[in-house]
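Quick one, T. Sequence first:
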Amino acid sequence: LAVGSNHVIAVVNVAFEIYDKTGTSVIGPLTFSSFFTGVSGCTGVFDPNALYDEEAGRYILGIDADGANYCVAVSATSDPTGVWYRYAFAAATPSANFFDYPHAGVGDNALYMGGNMFNCAPSCSFIESRIWAYDKAAMYSGNSASFVTASLGTSGFTPQPLNLHGFDQGTWPSTNTHLFMAGLNADNVRLFSWTNALTGGSPGLVTTYNLQTITGVSSSEPLSFPQSGTGGDLQGNDSRPQDFEYRNGYGWVTQAIGCNPGSGTVNCVRWAQINLSSLAVADSGVYGSNGTYRSFPDLAVNHCDDMAVGYTKSSSSMFPGIWVTGRESSDSAGTLQAETQLKAGEITYTAFAGAPHRWGDYTEMTIAPDGLTFWYLGEYSKVTGSSSGRWGTYIGSYTFPSCATQPTATPTTTATSTATPTKTPTSTSTATSTATATNTATATKTPTPTNTPVGPTATNTATATASNTPVGPTATNTATATPSSTPVGPTPTASATPTIIYDNFVYIPLIKH
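Structure tokens:
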């Protein structure tokens, strides 16, 4: 989900749709395959991301292509219904490997991405996580663009790049170091840094956070979770971090874990706020209740340091639905407020394969450039007239009433970390890619911890060339798709519940992987 000043872009597994902020669809739904037509290497797409660069006023779409390439499109202006520049970057290293679960973040001097690498000959096994840096200045100009990739080895899983926010409020950091948060196991997450990524720097491990110890709540991997009816359980996946968001010198991370509120293990939402200068955990908590499963959380933070998190909620007596909660900066440490239902599940979910049924793999909470308005895209079980693929997506926006005005922009500050990771060599990788610019009507600054390579040194020169092709509102874009509490820890306060401004966004009938 990408939210700019005037438009919202929602993505599902193989397609996207552009709305204005009244909830009116202005482009789409359009499949990514159609959108990337003419760009070599952009077929077999899945696992998309959508971002908005507040500093540059650009929308970014990225998607995995056949586990081999990462296809990226950037809007040529702040209007996503106009020209887009499209790129295909090689991602599988070496090419026989399978690249999976990419997640991107906006940095000050680059676009960053993290993903997992598997060897799939003959069966797939995890071999390493990798991170990438893309020259966003070149991409925003529609020029040939270079990228660099580096290995984190097996020391972290699903690295999430820090995603910067706060430019309009004057709190966008300026530093040439970017941070990534990766999972280690249900107890621990790991912070990595990468300084001078585009000019020969190597990534390094900064520190490990044992969030089980810090929160005081025992954790395990999430479970497959029940739903009302006889359709079978849904997949809860694992405890990998779901995002890593920057606001006012802090990094915020969330993940689903298994926890026991007293009557047995359920899926719970764990979150942490990290001071990126001292590297200390400033606040953290676990949110769960007996018999109820909360899965696939994602969070965002406004300029007042209030946090909102959304997730799927389900139980043996509840269809999978979309819920949100959050906390104001003045709330008691470790607490979240009373949750709010955004969209109720409608039916027992069944998918294209047997139970436990595929669900997720992720949702998206984000914040508008004004630093005030939260937007959330979640998944719920929907009556579709089909016996399989009974799912829908729903978008809502809301604010905390206590944070209603924007601050006056002040000069940016750079957070500085005192951590000094140790250096080890990392692998070298090179790639070339061909970018095609499209005229489409469809479709952090980080602190500066000392950097240490974790694996092979990354020096990569990839180039992409761009050319223009119209794909605007006048272009054909009829891509019809077929769908083929009681918290753990302190009690939440019911005050200042997020206010739903409107929730008139509707189901996007697109294909789910």
